[in-house]
Amino acid sequence: MSPSRHGCQFSGVRLERVRASRQFEDGRFRNTAPVGPGIQGNPLPVLGEFFLGASKRVPPGPVPLESPLETWTRRPESGFRVTWLGHSTMLLELDGARILTDPVFGERASPLSFAGPRRFHAVPASLESLPELDAVLVSHDHYDHLCRPTIEALVKRRVRFVTALGVGAHLEAYGVAPELITELDWWERTQVGPVVFTATPSQHFSGRGLGDRNRTLWASWVMEGEKHRVFFSGDTGLTEELVEVARRHGRFDLVMLEVGAFHPSWGGIHLGPENALKAHAMLGGGTLMPVHWATFNLGLHPWDEPAETLLRMATEQQVQLFTPRLGAAVEPTRWELSTPWWREVTEAALNPRPVMGG
């Protein structure tokens, strides 16, 4: 069987590995706990939020961006640097390796070029301006994490792809050579250059089209270099398996957790700020970087609510946050103070600068 339009049909070794996974049952992957997408409880209040709060779900003005290009010409002195390019897309410079996570450079998180969630801001650096990459990490196959035009543009770089079990079928369908794809089941690992990647459990779901729900696996990720160790949540709800991640891998230098696109009635498939702090504690603490917000309108909350709520709660709980501006190439171990840069957007909209006459 060759890959379908959505790349969700398997054959050969990939099919054998999918069937052998403990998470695969009755033709689909599953969470350890019986959790899935969908509205939990009465849907009427959720519908009310959908229709009444739309204006606050997008920024009232331009989102501030920085250019990382000049900084990228120098290696990080500490050996570890992060550039947040938007949503869950980051360039990690980790002990000599450059890793691009969940690359979405397209205008929309959607299968359509003319409809679907449109980005709030430009990507701070173009695909063409990225430095040489050692690996591309794709956590799972949702459109806000796996962008077909972006993958097709990366093909010519001949870079290694690391992803969850089954997602390689999408990548092959988009032109990535099979020998450049490594697919991992939970707790499996692979090494690319100096960095060891481990696929760790997450609580989410997958699918890119009608009929392919949960045909591919989703995962969180541990990346370990010679001196630094980081955790990337991908998409996940709160799961007790994070305790086991901490037990096996120890303390992290940076914990990157999704905080946006959440709602209490959506069950346990996303974290949100409150559960992100619980997940952070389960993972053993360390510096916390919120991701998966400020780029696409994927939830019912105001666009900046994830950051505001997290900042307030993290301050109360004395958790160290790492909140760089979009595009800023920053070394987390040299980070001193989180600044609420997102407030500048509202302040600028409320107090526009006067236009000077000639």
Give a verbal description of the structure.
Helix content is about 20%, strand content about 20%. It is α/β, with parallel strands linked by helices and about 350 residues long. The protein is globular.
Question: What is the structure about, briefly put?
Answer:
It contains nine helices and 15 strands. It is of the alpha/beta class and 358 residues long.
Mean pLDDT: 91
The amount of helix comes to 10-25%
Structural class: alpha/beta
Classified in CATH, the superfamily is: Ribonuclease Z/Hydroxyacylglutathione hydrolase-like
Question: Helix and strand succession?
Answer: HEEHHEEEEHEHEEEEEHEHEHEH
Q: State Rg.
A: 20 Å
Number of domains: 1
The outline comes out as globular
> Tally the helices: what do you get?
9
- Numbering strands along the chain, what is their spatial order in the largest sheet? 8-7-6-5-4-3-15
Major beta sheet summary: 7 strands, mixed
Name given to the CATH architecture: 4-Layer Sandwich
Report the strand count: 15
Low-confidence stretches: 1-5
N-to-C terminal Cα separation, in Å? 68 Å
CATH topology: Metallo-beta-lactamase, Chain A
Under CATH at level 1, the class stands as Alpha Beta
Q: Approximately what portion of the residues adopt beta-strand conformation?
A: 15-25%
Q: What oligomerization state is this entry in? A: single chain
